[in-house]
Amino acid sequence: MNNNSFNINHYDDEPIINELGFREYDARWIYPKQINLSGIKKIGYGLGQLMIEENIKKEIVIGHDYRSYSEEVKNALISGLLSYGITVFDIGLTISPGAYFAQYDLNCKSVAMVTASHNENGWTGFKMGVNRPLTFGPDLMNKLKEICLNDLNPKKSHGEYKFIEGMNAKYINDITNKNNIKRKLKAVVACGNGTSSIFSPEILEKIGIEVIKIHCDLDYSFPNYNPNPEDLKMLKHLSEEVIRNNADIGFAFDGDGDRCGYVDDNGNEIFSDIMGLLLARNFSEKYKSSKFVIDVKSTGLFGSDKILKSNDASVHYWKTGHSYIKQKTSEISALAGFERSGHYFFNKPIGRGYDDACLSAVEVCKLLDENPGSSISDLIKNLPHTFNSPTMSPECPDNVKYEVIEKVIDMIEDRYKNKIKIADLEISSILTINGIRFTLEDGSWGLIRASSNKPNLVVVCESTTSYDVMKEIFYFIDNLLKQFKEVGPYDQSI
Question: Are residues 180 and 231 in the same domain?
Answer without folding.
Answer: yes
